[in-house]
Amino acid sequence: MDRRLVELAQGGDRDAFAGLVHAVGDRLYALAFRILRDPHLAQDAYQETLLTAWRQLPNLRDPDRFDAWTRQILVHACYAESRRRTQWRTNVRVLELEESAFADAGHSVHDREQLEEAFATLSIDQRAVFALHHYLGVPLVEIASTLGIPAGTARSRLHYATQAMRAAIEAADAGGTARERTA
Amino acid sequence: MTTGMLDPRVSAWLESGPTSAPPIAFEELMAAVAATPQDARRIRVGGRVLPVTRPRLLLAAAVIVAAVATGVYLRGTSTPDVATPPDPTSLLAPFPDATVVVEREGGPSTAADSVSIATLPRNGGFVVAASCTGGGQLRVDHWDRSIEWGPDVPEAERMPNDRLEVPCDGTPATTRITTVSAPTDENELVLEAPAGATWRVAVGQEALPEKPSFEPIEVGEGALVLMNAFEPMMTGASDAGGIGVQVPQGVDTVRALVQCLGAPLDVTTEAGAVMATVQCEDTATTHRVDFPVTDATAGYLGIHVAADGFTWYRLSAGAVPAATAPRPTAPPLPDGLGDVRFADGDDSNVAFGSLGSNVQVVKALGGRPVGSGVGDLVAIRRPNATGETLELWRMSDASPIGTLAAVTDGQFFTAWIDEANEQVFYGLSRFVDGVPTGEWHRVALDGTGDVEVATAAPINEMTFAQERFAVDGSAFVAQWCLPDRCERTIYDAVTGEVERVELPPDPPCWLVGVAAGRLVTAAEGCDGTGPRSAVVEDLDGGSRTAIRDQPGNGEVVATSARPVVVFTDELDETHTVVSVMDLDGSNQRELWVSEHPSAFAPQLSTLRLPAGDWILLAGPLGDTPINASIGRPVPVLLNVVTGERIELPNLPSSG
């Protein structure tokens, strides 16, 4: 991260902030999507995060922490978006995924459904830890610090989430075998 | 981007989906940013938080800031109810330098009244004076009207920027208001009068000093940077400006460094106690004001300033570690272990120390070590305006030796020092022709002879990537995997010969270590839920032998007799077990059961110890302000032959 850009943006330089958004925005949006599994909610979380970051930038103590700081804001924005989603998720189900990512496996659609369903059963806390660790590769200790939770809690959330996703893929395997037998 | 610790199908599922924000999202965001002011750098920001949801974002983006001529203009044209002859001159008498710009009066009215007094342009300094009679209390509020309050922000939480409270007993009250940090000219003064009050209000404008350019602030020896100075700020109304800092453990004094220009400045605590009054006559002077840390301010301390006038100021803060509570001295350490040096950092400060000392030298380098120190050397990455440099530092006197490498728009993520062959292996990630790429290089200690050893791209499709330097110094090994293949590069540390091995797409969980031409990996069950095994294989991918069938963290360690593998495993919720075995899986034995949950157990340190039979189990060793010692176990030296343990209370821990 360009520390000078952060410092300029802290002083109110909107062009510098645009540079920062270019640097981190895509990653934040991608992370929000992985947590929320909904492009529209992810977009809201992305915008809310970066607008909050703009407003509160003067209070950021260490410019070098900009990356981690925005990640922290994003996770909380995802929590808020998730609460909004629960109000209508019983009626609306949005799964906009790129098919090409699954084109190399014969049972991929079935896998995806199983994984989406398994992920949907996780709490937003567990999803956040799972995506931070397995998508962004953030170490558990740093996740704990980001979310303000004990490392043990972060670890147990990750463990639970990982277990659920593993169970989902095993269930997908079992389903695929059953279909093959039927065929 | 996934860590390679998942079932590949789960990884693929997680990786699928968008990786960039839609362009419209960016455009809407920047339009909203253009219409949104930043929070003032103040501690007290209660009630000014503006939750923004998508509909409000769009609204904010649509805000058109009218081109209002700069200058104060009066609100309303009707003749006020005059009950008392106005006397603005006397109201502004305390401000002889002020030019009267607004005079208003009114009341009494039968009900509480809200009157828009004036709209103030930005970049101004104003004085407001008011008096009233009739009982109750009158308010004059300064609102930043460019802030759009969301519908879910309760009325009670919508706080003005400044507020002047005036008892309606005939006593005048005054305040100063600055609009220097206001984003627009929409700064409205609104008077709230109680029923039955008769009031007068006057607004004057004072000339502001030019925004100064202060000299750089140096926190100074003995104090660790907690907050760097930002742009100059200006004192304003009765509420003080200032900064808030997190106070690390072990700090008994926070040092405020104050620069100012204008009227004398009171530097106060959050409770208003004046710690010092400093003169603000030039831009070169930095005043040091020490705040003792008390029970009330442990963890967080507010530093406020106030002036009887308009004053530019800039604040930094440093932590002064407690001089009266040194850590215990180290116990006697065998085999030269006391002289083993380390460097540890937190991106702002780097601590240099040794295992046998309770004193560390901390320098504000704005970077952090990558990889472990070896002998007296450590590599430190330091961000700069365009990227990063990787520097070689001497740990014994915390001094720089030279630059190993530099990268633009990239980051150094690892460094392994090969002291015997006077070289360093380092890793960096950067975009090459738009493709996120990981590279491992070899460079001589003097920064010459930089050679790219291995390249992995694109990073975002990697299922695994890691490197290791052999504990016997024989080879540097880097391995990476894409969904359809893995590749391993072996760099002979002595001859410089490079061997590349194509491997099937079966990524390990991680590389445990390299020794004697063999590689130990943690394999299978990488998601942490199923059985995990440790496998030893030839570096060229030849014979593979499973030596263990349970999860755990491991490290290959060189001992006086032969290399061994040490594992730490969670025994139960409150215990962690440390065990050791030979590279062929033989001689497995338990060394120590520690009374730590695995998340808080001391971890196997990669710090290179002198040849012998000792390993170090520890958390971070650096005593820097941001690396608080909360949750750190006491570092322990453990002899892998005898099982003897030596605790190191001289190093930071939470006890």
Report on the structure:
The complex is a heterodimer of chains A (183) and B (655). Chain A has 183 residues and is mainly α. Chain A has 8 helices and no strands. Chain A is elongated, with a radius of gyration of 19 Å. Chain B is mostly beta strands and 655 residues long. In chain B, 5% of the residues lie in helices and 45% in strands. Chain B has 4 helices and 44 strands. In chain B, α2 crosses α3 (54-61). The longest helix of chain B has 12 residues, at 23-34. The model of chain B is unreliable at 1-5, 41-86 and 626-631 (pLDDT under 50). The interface between A and B is large, with 71 and 66 residues.
Layout of helices and strands:
The complex is a heterodimer of chains A (183) and B (655).
Chain A: H1 3-10, H2 14-36, H3 39-56, H4 66-86, H5 108-121, H6 124-134, H7 140-147, H8 151-182
Chain B: H1 8-15, H2 23-34, H3 54-61, E1 73-74, H4 88-91, E2 99-106, E3 113-120, E4 125-144, E5 162-169, E6 173-178, E7 187-193, E8 198-206, E9 224-227, E10 233-234, E11 241-246, E12 251-262, E13 265-268, E14 274-278, E15 287-292, E16 300-307, E17 311-321, E18 341-345, E19 349-354, E20 361-364, E21 368-369, E22 377-383, E23 387-394, E24 399-408, E25 410-418, E26 423-432, E27 435-444, E28 451-456, E29 464-469, E30 475-482, E31 485-492, E32 498-503, E33 510-515, E34 518-523, E35 533-538, E36 544-548, E37 553-558, E38 563-572, E39 575-582, E40 589-594, E41 603-604, E42 614-618, E43 636-639, E44 645-647
Antiparallel strand pairs in B: 1-3, 2-8, 3-7, 4-5, 4-6, 4-7, 4-8, 9-17, 10-17, 11-16, 12-15, 12-17, 13-14, 13-16, 18-19, 19-20, 21-22, 22-23, 23-24, 25-26, 26-27, 27-28, 29-30, 30-31, 31-32, 33-34, 34-35, 35-36, 37-38, 38-39, 39-40, 41-42, 42-43, 43-44
Helix pairs in contact in B: 2-3
Brief write-up:
The complex is a heterodimer of chains A (183) and B (655). Chain A is mainly α and 183 residues long.
Supply database-style keywords:
heterodimer; A: 183 residues; mainly alpha; 8 helices; 74% helix; disordered C terminus; B: 655 residues; mainly beta; eight-stranded antiparallel sheet; five-stranded antiparallel sheet; 4 helices; 44 strands
